[in-house]
Predict the 3D structure of the following.
Amino acid sequence: MELILPWVVAAHALAGAVFLGGLVGRWIVLGLAARADSMASMRTLTRAAQPFERIVIVGSMIVLVLGVVAAIAQGRPFLGPFQGAGVDWLFASLVLFLTVGPLVPLVFIPKGRVFDAALADATARGEITSELRVAWADPVVRAAHVYELAVITLIFVLMITKPF
């Protein structure tokens, strides 16, 4: 197990960096798509965001699994108080990470359906519609994405600094 541990920890850190990169990449490409001035540009940019979206979805699961495996391999009580330990950066990171999960069924999926319908309608019309602009500017989706990026960035900082 001692030979595997550094590789698991390194894989977890690398997966976390890729995951964070996927979040930032998605943010940048979708931001450009939202400001596009033609349907062709918007469609191209939304397609360009798809690999970043896959990185975020798959990466989140890989990061979680590798993080738990690394904690177990190190003998760390990643469940903190539930394992008779105190609250440390590892437990705080896990709790923060888990707060992002509910955004998927509560915000991203239902708002994504509204966006997809507006995009399909605009595509059929061949023009950027006001409904599509409204869907791009949805403040709930924006807040959810800001929260998601902030939480993952904070976890990355906690993982590096281990402040408590």
About this structure: The chain has one domain: 5-161. The CA atoms of residues 6 and 70 lie 9 Å apart. Residues 5-161 form one domain.
